[in-house]
Design brief:
82 residues; alpha/beta; four-stranded parallel sheet; 3 helices; 4 strands
């Protein structure tokens, strides 16, 4: 099963992405966090196959998050949206 981590400070955006993923009718495990700091904490607990992240978020933006993830978890595929 593909594990996806959605990172966005806006709940409506996270819900929209989860809705679209559900429409694909594929089995995915979806987790979500509200910023880059929380995303790194979540990845320490359990890694993901795909990281979907917004750019503009409080505490740590999506660009800094992807740089840190690339260094620590190079196998994770990343998609940045805005």
């Amino acid at each position: 099963m593909v594990r996806i981590l959605i990172v966005d400070d806006e709940k409506i955006e996270r819900n929209g992405i989860k809705f679209l993923l559900k429409q694909l009718n594929i089995e995915v495990e979806v987790r979500e966090t509200v910023n880059g700091v929380k995303a790194l904490e979540a990845l320490e607990q359990e890694t993901a196959d795909i990281l979907l992240t917004d750019i503009k978020m409080p505490f740590m933006d999506g660009l800094e998050l992807t740089e840190r993830v690339r260094r620590t978890y190079p196998e994770i595929k990343m998609i940045i949206f805005s």
